[in-house]
Design goal:
By secondary structure, this protein is mainly α. It has seven helices and three strands, in the order ααββαβαααα. The protein folds into two domains: 101 residues, GMP Synthetase, Chain A, domain 3 (2-Layer Sandwich), CATH 3.30.300; 43 residues. Pfam families: DciA.
Length: 172
């Protein structure tokens, strides 16, 4: 049965007790963070944003991945990862359990794109540029569109820059 009696908050923050609740949580978090860094060091760099350590209990390491495709890729790496972790940090490790956490995909999508496609400082605005042909196509669609959509399409066509809008801009 669980102890559900009210406890003093001072007891939670008491550093003299070795069994303080918050101290145990902090130690567990530090251990999982260290384990996460070790796992990331052993995995290929493309997998770093998509995999993280979720838990370690009863000799089983629980890893979270963003989706099923990363899960399959991690399963290929699993035997080497298991043997390396046993040799380096956790000799009592018996298995690795992999689960899918879709929220991991949303949080790391922008980070993963930065890792997968590094952009130099001179190329940062290149991804926002449209070709002049694309701008012309957008403006021709805008001419036949309702007013609200027309404004959006014209703003999008203006992203073509001076090169694209000089040929295709409309005079109002």
């Amino acid at each position: 049965m669980r102890n559900s009696r009210p406890q003093s908050i001072e007891k939670l923050f008491d550093e003299t007790q070795n069994s303080g609740c918050l101290q145990q949580i902090q130690q567990r978090a530090v251990a999982l963070n260290k384990l996460n860094k070790t796992v990331r060091a052993l995995l290929p760099s493309q997998m770093h944003p998509w995999v993280r350590v979720a838990n370690y209990r009863q000799g089983i390491l629980v890893l979270e991945v963003a989706n099923a495709s990363w899960m399959m890729r991690l399963r290929y790496e699993q035997p080497e990862l298991l043997s390396a972790l046993r040799a380096q940090i956790i000799p009592s490790l018996t298995a690795i359990d992999i689960s899918i956490n879709p929220s991991l995909a949303g949080k790391t999508a922008s980070t993963a794109q930065e890792h997968a496609y590094p952009v130099s400082s001179g190329q940062k605005n290149m991804g926002c540029q449209l070709s002049s042909d694309s701008a012309a196509a957008l403006l021709s669609v805008a001419e036949r569109s309702p007013e609200k959509l027309r404004g959006v399409l014209e703003r999008l066509a203006s992203l073509a820059g001076e090169r694209g809008t000089s040929k295709t801009s409309r005079n109002k």
